[in-house]
Amino acid sequence: MHKIAKAPPKAQNKRVIIAKVVVVALYLVGAIGLSLPEYRDYFLMLTPAQLLITLLLVLGFHRGWSDAFPIFAAAAFWMGFGAELIGIHTGYIFGDYVYGPTLGPMLWQVPIVIGINWFLLVYLTGAVFYKLTDNDFFAALLGAGAMTVVDYIMEPVAVELDFWYWNSDNIPSGNYLTWFVVAFLIHLIYRKGNFEKGNPLAAMILTAMILFFTVLNFTLGV
């Protein structure tokens, strides 16, 4: 049996550096483009592509390709997508809201990339916190808490850019509680999954996402 040759450490480090530069460019250019009214519509059309490129970067540097990983990925996608689906059609779970056209093609009135977004956020927050504790319950609390902070920063921007909008004047506080609960459940699956959880891009991408929405909160005046 032939062994698969691994890239030398220097080559691996070079790939990681290049990927991190791509991440910075992707989110920096996106933040600038969405902040400028004359270019905003063009960059809004690229929003689904930004998420898909982020997904490719995450998967390209994922190391734990065991049988458990696609099971977790599918669970994260469908649990997140399913919660949004129930929310859209019933007004329960997150509240009474509707998706706009910005996030691209929809399935049952929910953008397909929303499932990808749930997977990415669980994966990234999970990868950042996975070494902090061996306690799966506590780790899931940390991950879900981090995701709730991201959602809090993201919500005003998402409404302003027509990702989605609420059928009330204010974002309901219950949205954050139920977001935390759904995120916590998916994080438990992540923790129980028997696959390597380190990813050299995770912290960089999560930081870029947080800064992206933080900057847009200021530049859009929301």
TrEMBL record:
<feature type="transmembrane region" description="Helical">
    <location>
        <begin position="42"/>
        <end position="61"/>
    </location>
</feature>
<keyword id="KW-1133">Transmembrane helix</keyword>
<feature type="transmembrane region" description="Helical">
    <location>
        <begin position="137"/>
        <end position="154"/>
    </location>
</feature>
<feature type="transmembrane region" description="Helical">
    <location>
        <begin position="106"/>
        <end position="130"/>
    </location>
</feature>
<dbReference type="Pfam" id="PF04240">
    <property type="entry name" value="Caroten_synth"/>
</dbReference>
<feature type="transmembrane region" description="Helical">
    <location>
        <begin position="68"/>
        <end position="94"/>
    </location>
</feature>
<feature type="transmembrane region" description="Helical">
    <location>
        <begin position="174"/>
        <end position="190"/>
    </location>
</feature>
<keyword id="KW-0812">Transmembrane</keyword>
<protein>
    <submittedName>
        <fullName>Putative membrane protein</fullName>
    </submittedName>
</protein>
<feature type="transmembrane region" description="Helical">
    <location>
        <begin position="16"/>
        <end position="36"/>
    </location>
</feature>
<keyword id="KW-0472">Membrane</keyword>
<feature type="transmembrane region" description="Helical">
    <location>
        <begin position="202"/>
        <end position="220"/>
    </location>
</feature>
<dbReference type="InterPro" id="IPR007354">
    <property type="entry name" value="CruF-like"/>
</dbReference>
